[in-house]
Amino acid sequence: MAASPASVAESRTHEKYERLIARAKALPPIPTAVAHPCDETSLAGAVEAAEAGMIIPILVGPEENIRAIAEKAGLNIRPYVIVPAEHSHASAAKAVELVRAGKAEVLMKGSLHSDELLREVTSKQTGLRTERRISHVFIMDVPKHPEVLFITDAAVNIAPDLEGKRDIVQNAIDLHLALSAGLDIGPPRVAILSAVETVTPKIPGTIDAAALCKMADRRQITGGILDGPLALDNAISPEAARIKGIKSEVAGRAQILVVPDLEAGNMLAKNLSFLANADAAGIVLGARVPVVLTSRADSIRTRMASCAVAAIYAHSLRQSTAMAAE
Question: Domain 130-286: which topology?
Answer without folding.
Answer: Isopropylmalate Dehydrogenase (3.40.718)
